[in-house]
Specification:
single chain, globular, 7 strands, alpha/beta, 199 residues
Length: 199
């Protein structure tokens, strides 16, 4: 994520954006969690957690597990912390102000990861994928849901972004890569899933 993009999610504009995102992205967050289908004791990474809706959904589902989240925006950190205060107090949620290129967790420590409307902001995308591959356990899945318009802004065409993303994921050890038209946001989003090789 560029410094210009980070600034757009901070300050008064960021607060407004957080409230809009909490409402508009709710369906996508629900879908991402359901597709990932984490086990009750899993550790799940939420990348670009925004106002923390996905974090909250995961924390409620992970009976004995925990959620680790990263987002570079101070406003999103504040909003997500407020939303998930009870889970943070009980040690079920850990939020970090950080980008996907420097996730502050140990190697092979996460059982899965979700990224809702944030994968298009991984700049460069390959660095983000490499870092996600580092922190996922072998066999863990990455689930992303992303707006068409956001992908078009980055790559010009959704199919061009998907082709590039597939190649990048394969280079970094991901398999079972698949995508489909999401059933949320009026079908104007793409779901992309991949599994880190078990080798």
């Amino acid at each position: 994520m560029t410094s210009k993009t980070i600034r757009s999610f901070d300050g008064p504009a960021g607060t407004v954006a957080a409230r809009v995102m909490a409402r508009m992205n709710h369906g996508a967050e629900v879908a991402a969690v359901e597709i990932l289908a984490p086990g009750p004791d899993d550790t799940v990474l939420a990348i670009g957690f925004g106002p923390g809706v996905g974090v909250e959904l995961l924390a409620a589902r992970l009976v004995g597990g925990r959620v680790v989240g990263v987002d570079p925006s101070g406003v999103m950190m504040r909003e997500a912390t407020r939303r998930n205060a009870r889970f943070i107090d009980h040690g079920k949620v850990q939020l970090h102000r950080a980008g996907v290129q420097a996730i502050p967790v140990s190697d092979a420590s996460c059982d899965g990861a979700i990224a809702v409307n944030s994968a298009q902001l991984w700049q460069p995308f390959a660095d983000g994928v490499a870092e996600v591959a580092r922190v996922l356990r072998p066999g863990a899945r990455l689930v992303t849901l992303t707006h068409d318009w956001a992908l078009e802004k980055q790559a010009g065409r959704v199919d061009a972004w998907l082709e590039s993303a597939r190649e990048t994921l394969e280079r970094h050890g991901f398999t079972e890569i698949e995508h489909w038209r999401a059933h949320v946001e009026r079908g104007r989003s793409i779901t992309l899933c991949a599994r880190l090789s078990r080798r």
